[in-house]
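Assemble and predict.
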Amino acid sequence: MKTMGTLITLIYVGLAPLSASHASEVGPRLYNLYCATCHGTRGDGLGESARLLAGPSPQDFTRGVYKFRSTLSGGLPTDADLMRTVRRGIPGTSMPAWAGILDDTQVAAVVAHIKGFSPRFATRETSEVIASPKTVPEPTVASIERGRNVFLLMKCFLCHGTRGAGDGPDAPALKDARGLRIDPRDLRRGEFKGGGAARDIFRTLATGIDGTPMVAYFANPEVLGRPLVRLRKAFSKDVLSHRALNDQDRRRIEKFMADLPSASKFDDMEEKQQEALVRGWQWDLVHYIRDLAGRGSWWRRFLGLTPSRPLFGAGKEE
Amino acid sequence: MRFKGLVLAVALVSTDPALATPLFALREGTTCKACHVNPSGGGMRNRYGRYVYGPTQLPAAYPRALMSRPLDADISESFGFGADARTAYIDQRSAPKESDSDIHSLIAMQADLYVAARPFHGLTLYYDQGIYGSFEAMAMYEFSLGSPAFSAYIKVGHYMPSYGLRMPNHRIFTREEIGFGPRDKDTGIEVGVTLGPVLVQLGLVNGTGPEFKLDDNMAKGFVGRAEFLARLGDFRLMLGGSFYYNTAGAKTSSSGQVVDTRSWQTRVGAHVGAALGRFAYLAEGDVRMISLGEGNVSGVKEYSFRSYQELAVLLFRGLDLTASYEFREPDLDLESGRAHRIAIGFEFYPIPFTEIKFLYRRSLGSGTAEKAIDGFNEVIAMIHLFY
């Protein structure tokens, strides 16, 4: 008991300096407390727990390359982007949601400290923010069906598979920016690293996931809309002949292509109309992806392979 | 009966700072070391265990209203502390009717205070003091073997040797009864090597049994444990094996009676774990050979077998329903003495650093000599606070 008493005294005395922490030290202190064990005290992703955790390696903040942003591919994230990631965590990885544990002021302090690891932030480099959609259209059966066609026409199935299971024909060869093998997301799991709400998925499709093969598909209408209409035959040729697709998919795609406005009609449209048309297809794709996630078969739910969330507090969807 | 009741009570109140939760490691597809300071698991949690996994992944909820202040048990980056306190109500009744050896008591099962210091990267000094005098004291040096996936450690001091699955219940047949109960710490040195998914631990200990004392002979105990952990998509698989070999020889009193049976036995065990989503299965089987060697009851060898199986179902985050089955064959050469036990219960982590556990254990023993101990049915309700 004497030993125990000595230990308690030692701890009590040692704790005293903690209460004297200044506000300016909050970021580094919280970072060292909660983040450094994985991301490392130098932000290089080499924390002592990093190698022990299942899933992707912790982010190396010194590189200044961020996956989840609202900015164009290659750009720096905004503070709001970083705060969103810290608050929500990254589902399907070891990065937990800190929303229930840290308040917004504390999260902001941590983000400020994280930014200090990369010289890119110090250069005041500006990154164009992709505007968040003001409204989210309601999904319908028809929009989900159209989304399936867009999913196939944009060749998402090459990585994610025709069923969205992450088992596409190109999947085994995928590598990230560091040359490490990377698996495409199994969209049926309902775990989206950048967030599972419609706006989140839209943002991910718009910005891509830097450092991975997932490029920005919605950033520019030229990626999807205009070529789809103007080069419809060339656009669909590779897809329709791909052996991964079944006849039903081919028939649906052909019907979808047949219903598209002609190139001349499309060109006659006002730019806003064109954009609205393209934006509609984009939302169709978002609805289809969310529908895939919601379809999780009964056995996946039974086994608990769908995302596990706490009853309240940390990790609740914002 | 009074004596047996006393023995039971002593066994119940013994603390076990080496308690760990292999279930969590299996589910997360990692090793005990991910959350614990000790590479063998149990005891003080490391920074990831305390500040990341403990508050964010384990409990059903994190009520910020109650815990608004950031957690911080570290006095500095190189010095921190932790604690475990378990208090239980145990209602233990002998079958078929109540006797004077029954127990209906609140018991402080564990109260341990941990201190760990890291004077420089790689070196950890660790001390654990329990309320009943049990302690662990060790120094560990960890280093990389050139790749993040390859590492090694050396541990010296007084600690629980690495063997089998360190289930968070020292009274199951595969822990205390084969010599890895709460008091079975030993003094020695252990080397562990992690090679990707494989962990190999080899140790040399005095082999003197539960007492903290100087060894009086040259023979030592050799301990080994190996574990392979595979992550195949959502599926987790753990395969492992352990041995304990002690050639210290029979210790006898001046009258020739055997006084220490722990120091001259061989134990060999295998363990397996599988997890998929909310379901997890853990099992261990151990054979113990006691050799009543030369100078005593010559040539007599006694083989016994014990096993433990557990199925856990994660109902929702923080709440596991558990069911277990235990089997004991005290002497493989004899028909009698077999014992079976089943248990059901739950483990609930409502908020960080708090566990509520309930267990109903029913003895199905058919033994004779051990019936007095095995024949107890019990209910355990426990609150566990940890940090």
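Residues 2-69+77-386 of chain B form a domain with the Porin fold (CATH 2.40.160.10).
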